[in-house]
Amino acid sequence: MKKLMKCILVGLVFVGSNQWSRAGVNIIDDFIILKALGTGATFSGENYYDVKRDISLLNPNFSGANLGTFNILSTDVTIGGNTYSAGGLLQLSGAELKTNVAPTGDYQNSSNFARMAYSITQAGTSPSSFTLLNLNFNGENPSYPNYKWSTTGQTTNLLNGLAVGSYQLAVYFETNGSYFSGGQQFYSINPDNNGGANYVASFNVVPEPSTGMMMGLGIAGLLVVRRFRKIA
What is the residue-wise DSSP string for 85-152? Predict the structure, then answer.
């Protein structure tokens, strides 16, 4: 009887491990799509930044990138045919995720999920919460066992509400897998989060030029007043 109970328990553990910790789905590549209109950026304009790979021949790497320095503008300004939006523009335009599955009955479809999590914090500060961007299932890409998820056409200005300072944008990706055993069975996989450290790029926010100039003049004026007081 004890032997039978032991076999049943082992079987239940085996089923549970299949359902929740299978390794049938792998994240093979992921991208964040950003439109940066600032100065000093490693790459300007709209780009697919390669998040997972350390080296990419086609896209700039996100991890460690300088996304630029952005002025806090009071009005829209057009320079050289480019319009810089009030408040600057570091726009999240979307994200993309690519996966493949083990040829053992594992798969993904629109009942699964895929998403990118992102967070903006001051430089050197670990994120305490993330915002989720859900990705749409694009199907087999180009064919089984490869899949693609993506969301484009977003217009989220990541600079909204930020004060002058140095910041970092941290991201990670997650998805789940399925296998068929009397119906679709879901299981979780490890997220692509750089071993828990997340993938991080940096940027800076500075005052608009007129504000910076006025601050400089104000400080200079105070120094002159102090000097005259000392002479008197």
Answer: PTT-EEEEEEEEEEEEE-TTTEE--TTS-EEEEEEEEETT---S--EEEE-EEEEESSSTTEEEEEE-
Instruction: Give backbone dihedrals phi and psi of 197, rounded to 5 degrees, phi first.
Output: -90, -10
Whether residue 61 contacts residue 55, with contact meaning beta carbons closer than 8 Å, is answered with yes
User: What was the pLDDT predicted at 181?
Assistant: 87
Note the pLDDT tens digit of each residue in 130-157. Answer: 999 999 999 999 999 999 999 999 999 9
Q: How is 11-42 classified by DSSP, letter by letter?
A: HHHHHHHHHHH---EEEEEEEEEEEEESBS-S
Instruction: Please report, rounded to a whole number, the percentage of residues in the chain having pLDDT higher than 90.
Output: 56
Which residues have C-beta within 8 Å of that of residue 26, sequence separation ≥ 6?
A: 99, 100, 101, 189
Q: How far apart are CA 21 and CA 74, in angstroms?
A: 51
CA distance 79 to 81: 5
**Strand, helix or coil for residue 154:** coil
**Torsion angle of alpha carbons 77, 82, 87, 92, nearest 10°?**
170
Radius of gyration of the chain (CA): 25
> Coil, strand or helix: which one is 213?
helix
Say yes or no to pLDDT of 44 above 70.
Answer: yes
Domain spans of the chain?
A: 24-231
- Taking only the tens place, the pLDDT of each residue in 194-226 is 999 999 999 999 886 644 333 343 444 444 435
Own/partner pairs, 55-58, CB within 8 angstroms, 24+ separation:
none
